[in-house]
Amino acid sequence: MGKIEVIAGPMYAGKTEELIRRVRRTIYTKQKCVVFKHSFDTRYSCENVVTHDGQKIDCITVKTADDLLKNLNGLAEAPEIIAIDEVQFFDEDIVSLVSDLANQRKRIIVAGLDMDYKGLPFGPMPQLLAIANEVTKLRAVCSICGADALFSKRTVDCDGTILVGAKDEYIAVCREHFKN
Hints:
Blueprint: E1 3-9, H1 15-28, E2 33-38, E3 48-50, E4 56-58, E5 60-62, H2 65-73, E6 81-85, H3 93-103, E7 107-113, H4 125-131, E8 134-137, E9 140-141, E10 148-149, E11 151-154, E12 170-173, H5 175-179
Parallel strand pairs: 1-7, 1-8, 2-5, 2-6, 6-7
Antiparallel strand pairs: 3-4, 9-10, 11-12
């Protein structure tokens, strides 16, 4: 049976780390797996999915759901498992693609921010969460008080929804410090 696994949470919660952990487990079971990430994420590498602490795994970088499908179709061997990091950056077509792939008996693992810097649902994440077989909601540690952090607070002046960044642009915060 195919299935959809969604790993969600704020910045610094370990979403990419969890995605890499699940992908590495597929290596031990000798399952064919391919990893994708959105081309917006150039922070650490274009050829790898990389955690903030430097863990990495090879990936294919794509811009749209259609690009992802074209790359999948161009592989010499069809994968059983498809992992996608930074899924919040993809267009809405990613939802139907993920669903179609799961219906083809593929295991789909996606990781992404569930909310943007304003605390609003981010891109296709609400739909992906709704169709998921399994949801893992991770929490970070509030940079201010140490409580569980559910929000990514932008620390620089920029109004665009998408600002790819790290510790210079965002901190993880609890609900109390998000609203203040």
